[in-house]
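Example for tutorial group B:
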C-alpha cells in the first residue's frame, strides 16, 4: 500500500528537501507543500516507467567521482587563469568524439560531467554514429580532448554501465 503511494520514497524526500532549501524556509506550509510536491512529482516520474540503471562496478564509480572532482577543480583554475590573464585571443572550438558507450544512463552521466566542467559544454550526441560533439573554451589540441574523454571518462563509464 505504501509502495503505491510512494513508489520512489528517496526521490520524494529529495524533492521535498530541495523545495525547502530553495524556499529557505522550514515553515509548516513550506514543508507541507514540499511533501505534496515530492509525492506528486515522484508518482509522475513513475508513470514514465524509466528503465532501471544497473551500476555494475562501484569501485569504478568511486574512481570516476574522484577524477571528476580533480578535473573540475583543475578546469576552474584554468578558466580563472584565462579570464584573469586577459588574453584577447581564445581558441574556442568544437570537437567530435567517437564513443563506444551507448547506455543511456552512462551517456547522461557523461553529459553531466562535461557540462559541469568549466570551459566545456555538451552540444549534441548522434546516436546513429555514436559521436559526441562538445564545445571547448580554450581548444589547443583536438586529439587531447578526444583521448581525455575516452580514456578518463568513457572507459570508467563502460565499466560501470555496460
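The residue assignment follows.
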Amino acid at each position: 500500500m505504501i509502495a503505491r503511494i510512494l513508489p520512489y520514497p528517496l526521490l520524494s524526500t529529495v524533492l521535498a528537501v530541495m523545495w525547502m532549501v530553495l524556499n529557505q524556509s522550514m515553515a509548516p506550509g513550506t514543508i507541507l507543500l514540499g511533501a505534496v510536491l515530492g509525492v506528486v512529482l515522484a508518482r509522475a516520474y513513475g508513470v514514465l516507467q524509466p528503465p532501471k540503471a544497473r551500476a555494475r562496478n562501484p569501485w569504478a564509480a568511486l574512481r570516476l567521482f574522484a577524477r571528476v572532482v580533480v578535473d573540475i577543480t583543475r578546469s576552474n583554475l584554468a578558466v580563472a587563469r584565462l579570464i584573469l590573464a586577459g588574453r584577447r585571443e581564445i581558441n574556442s572550438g568544437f570537437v567530435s568524439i567517437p564513443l563506444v558507450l551507448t547506455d543511456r544512463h552512462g551517456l547522461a552521466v557523461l553529459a553531466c560531467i562535461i557540462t559541469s566542467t568549466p570551459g566545456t559544454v555538451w552540444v549534441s550526441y548522434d546516436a546513429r554514429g555514436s559521436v559526441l560533439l562538445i564545445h571547448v573554451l580554450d581548444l589547443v589540441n583536438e586529439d587531447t580532448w578526444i583521448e581525455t574523454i575516452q580514456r578518463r571518462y568513457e572507459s570508467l563509464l563502460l565499466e560501470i554501465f555496460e
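The helical segments are 2-5, 9-23, 28-47, 58-85, 104-116, 142-161. Compare this with the pattern of hydrophobic and polar residues in the output above.
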